[in-house]
Every structure is written in structure tokens, then in C-alpha cells.
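Following up on my earlier thread - several people asked me to post the actual chain instead of describing it. Fair enough. Here it is, all 580 residues.
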Amino acid sequence: MVLAMAKEEQNKAQATMRIDITPAMLEQLQQAPLSGGVRLSAHGADASAPRGGPGVIRLPGAPSSRPMGGEEFQVLLQSIYDAVFITDAKGTIVSANVRAEQFFAVTRKDLYEKNVLDWLCGADRGLLDTVWGSLESNRFVLIQALCRRNDETLFPAEISVSRLPMGGKMHLSFFIRDITLRKESEEQLKTGYNALQNAGSGIAVTDVEGALAGYINPAMMALLGLESMEEAYSHNFAQFLKDGALASDLIAMAQAGDTWMGELEMKRADGTPLWAQVALAPNLNPDGALTGIVISLLDVTSQRNAQLQLEHYAEQLRQKNAEMEGDLRMARELQGSFLPASYPVVTSANVERKLRLEFAHLYHPSGLVGGDFFTLLPLGEDRILVFMADVMGHGARASLVVATIRGLLDQIVKEAHEPGDFMTRLNSAYSEIFNNSSDLMFATASCLLLDLGRGKIYHANAGHPLPVVVEASQAVRLARVRQEALGPALGLFDNVVYQQSTADMLPGKRIILYTDGLTETRNSAMNEFSEKGLLASLEENAAKPLSILLNSIVYDAISFAGDSVFEDDVCMLAIDCVEG
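Reply from S.P.:
Thanks for posting it. Predicted structure:
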């Protein structure tokens, strides 16, 4: 019985008890003794204390995990900014810092399951052999590599490897620095440098006095005619400006922190001239202090020479235009002399019924000179030849044709008085003169012989608008002309025989001759004033005095077009047969 009870107590003493302790419980238990004087250590309960004294119970579980290298070493390891791997001789990771977990996006447990070579792209066992060999004569080995994160993304790294004696064995320490930002900056700097080197503009960085003591790109060397950097360093930017005083002002402006841009006349190292688009800006360090001047040059010599040439041509053109304008003014004055300054007196010789002719005209050339004109050629006391023409086009060429026709009229009227014969002779002479021209030059014309003695009107027409007749009753109509009296324009055919038509010249009858510049006037809808508009205006103003009548017609045409400038020359002549 006693023996049985003793065995039962012995079995109870030998029984194993499982206790699960959380980290928080462990921390509390480390601070306070357990009942019976038993304590817990950081590494489990310790039961190896002497009998009768305070014992430490070691709970079954993981073996001792005392930090490698001691607590102070671990504090130092975890505080390092770079990712750190500590490996054995074969590269197996035996320790790492928190930074390594962040860099490689992995837990420490997963880190310890791999070799350092697993995290380096393209690395194999030969790398470790090379590292160990290099460390025999060097304190550390520097490796530049691409590192692979746990999610297979890559980052560039700079890795310093050194030996680390620890626990009686030689280990390797890998200090890994992510240089992604530095690589990006280097690439940007490289790109910027290449851009400067290959730029078509000259770029230089001088010192604060403008001396070419800093960076100079090849384009600047070529632009300034410099052969070497040694030659460049012996020059100041001011030496290349034609205006030395201006150079000092520009450098002073940059020294004051201002930027300047403009076009300057410069000279190369050999003295040859050039023009350049120049920009100067202060070069500041990160603290904002002036360290020099950035100068940019763009060669614009060819553009400048072209501009000077254009300015020269423009001046020549201005002079030519002034000469032409003077010639046109003279031509206008000459053409104005073709129009009658005063009207001839034409009366009937019949004492039983005295008739006289009154005249009024209006002339609006579209330019300084035009191709429309009329003339009055008296043939005696009671007869007059009225001629109106419209030369194709307008301007100087048309005015030259007008002058030619005007000269022919004075010759032909000496030989021919009848409108048909007169137009036939004029066409023949006109064609002979202008047939050799490369351009077709024709003119429309209307020729009337007003014979008060006979009370007749004789009319020949060469493609010209028919005159408008206002009867004594103020009825308005186009002139009635026989078909055979309607001939082609002057200059179209050589051998044309023009016919004429006859009508009565009665007291109170008015005749208005005009050129088509009036009826072809258009409004914004491209509708023409036309004969219809002319007739309507005449009907409204038929009773007005001749000069007022013509001005009223022009006013109506301008109102219709909405523009006071006619596209073509406008010439009008009004004739009134007055009794008494």
C-alpha cells in the first residue's frame, strides 16, 4: 500500500505537462516568479535548478535562438539603411535585417530558405569563388547587379561584400543598396549630356565673368571657330561680340540674375562675321548662388543675310512702285486730258426750230487709270461725232490702248464722218497695231453721229452696251438698232465692215451712253445691278438735270452693291436735245 502510493507520487512527478505561452504572457512571466520559486527564462522554462532552490523549467519546443553575434550586433544590423545578408561560406543566408525583407518583399523565414545567389540575376557558384578569392587581398568587393524580388520584379543594386568572422567561422556580409533613383538620374544626365553634345545650337557654361572656362559643346566650338578646348579656355564670350560695351552689359545682366534673349552681330575667332540668336541666363547652384553664365547661340547668318537681301529688294521695289505710281499719276492726268474739259456747242442751223445739245459725264476708274473713255468730235456747227469705248481690262495696259485709240480717232475723223465707215477704218488700224501682241487686246465701242440739221441719229456699235433713250415723255427704253449695225468688238477680226442704224433726234430726247462696269456691279449675293437696275434708276430720275441724273444712277448702283468701290471702270455720258 505504501509502495503503491509511493509509485503513484513518483509517476506524478515524472509526468510531462504542455504549457502554451504567448509572447505577451512570456514577457509578464519573465518579470514575476512562479509559485514554488520556479521562473521562466526568455528561452523557456528551466527545471535544471538545484533541488530545493528556485528552478527554471524549459518547455519543449524550438532550440535556443540567441541572436547571432549578440544583441548589440543585432541592433547594429537592424539599424543599417542598406539591405544586409549574412551568409555562410556557401552563400546560405543565416541572418538578415528588416531592410532586406523590405527590399526583396519577403519574410525573414523565406529569406533563410534561400541562397544569396537566388536573389542575384545571372549569379552562380563561380561568383562566390571569385568573391572569396578577391577578399584574400581586398577588404571588400563591389558588385553591380540586378536583384530579383520575391514577386520577380527587378531593381538595380550596388552590393558591397566583405568577410565577417563570427562564432568561430568565417561568413560573408552582403550590403545591398537599391540604386534605381541613381540609375534614373544617371540616365537623365546622360540623355541631357548627349542632347547638349549633339545640339545644333551652340551651348556653353562660362564662369561669372564670361570666360569660357566650363562646358562647351561641339556646336559652340564650330560656331565660334575654335579648334580645341585649350584655345576655348583662353577666350571670354565678350571677345566674340562686335559691340564690346554691349557684351559687358549682357554679362552684368546675367550676374544680376536676369535672362536676356536677342539677335547679335558677332565675330568668330578668325574675325569672320556672323549673326546669332543669343540667350544668356545665370547658372545657379542648388543654394541659389551664381556660379556662372549659360550661353546659347543659334547661327542665323543666312537668315539675316536673306533678310537684308529682302530689305534691299523691298527698297528697290518701293522705289520701282514709286516710279510706277508716278507714271500712273501722269497717265491718269494724260487720260484725263482725253476727256473733254468743256463741252462743244452744237446747235441747229434751222431758224424755224432751234435745237442744241447739252452734255454731262461721269468717270470712275477702278484704279489710278482705266480703260474706259469717251470723246466728242465736232463736225461742224450742227453735227458732232460721239465715241465711247471700253478696252478689255483696266490699269496701265488698258490706258495705253486708250491712248493709242485716241490718237487713231483724230486721224480717222479727218477722212470718215459716218459711224459705220468710221468704225470700219478704226478696226482696221487697231487690228494692225495689236495683232502682233501676245495677248488678245480688244475693245468695245459705240459711235453716234448727232445731226441736228437733219434731226437724225446715226449709230454703229462694236459689241458695246446699247445706249439708253429717255423720250420727251420720260419713257425709258434701250436704243433700237438694226441687227446689221451690231458688229463685233474692235480688234477681234481684221476685215469687218460695220453698218449703221438711223433714228430721229427730237427735242426733249435724252441719250445715255455707259460702259458695262456700271451694270456688272455685284452685291454680296453676286447679283448684278444689270440693265434692269439701270432702267429702273433712270425711270425714277429721268426728269432731273443731266449731272444730277448721272450721280443718282451711280448712287443707286453703290447702294445695290453695298460698296463704294467699283470692280471695273465706270464711264457715263448723258446727252440732252433741248429746243430753243
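Residues 1-65 have pLDDT under 50 and may be disordered. That should answer part of your original question.
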